[in-house]
User: Fold this.
Amino acid sequence: MKLFMTTITDQKACPFCKGVNQCMAYSDQACWCENVEIPTSLTELLPLHLQRKSCICLSCINAYNENKEQFKADFLDLSN
Ligand SMILES: [Zn+2]
Assistant:
């Protein structure tokens, strides 16, 4: 039996763009994110209650690596 969080947090949605993150952390398969280095500074942009709950999607990781300032401008004000 799998354990599920009782909160409504959608673990399959990227916390930044709300897109599908294709995270496999909640299935039996290995997740793609295990082979990708996610910048700590990127996860730190998330509110504490979202950190390590839902996976950030690959396109957001790429966007952040390409242009951090633009990424912050695009996504950060959504959490306010
Ligand atoms: Zn995303």
Remarks:
- Residues 1-8 have pLDDT under 50 and may be disordered.
- The radius of gyration is 13 Å.
- Residues 12-80 form one domain.
- The helical segments are 40-43, 58-66, 68-75.
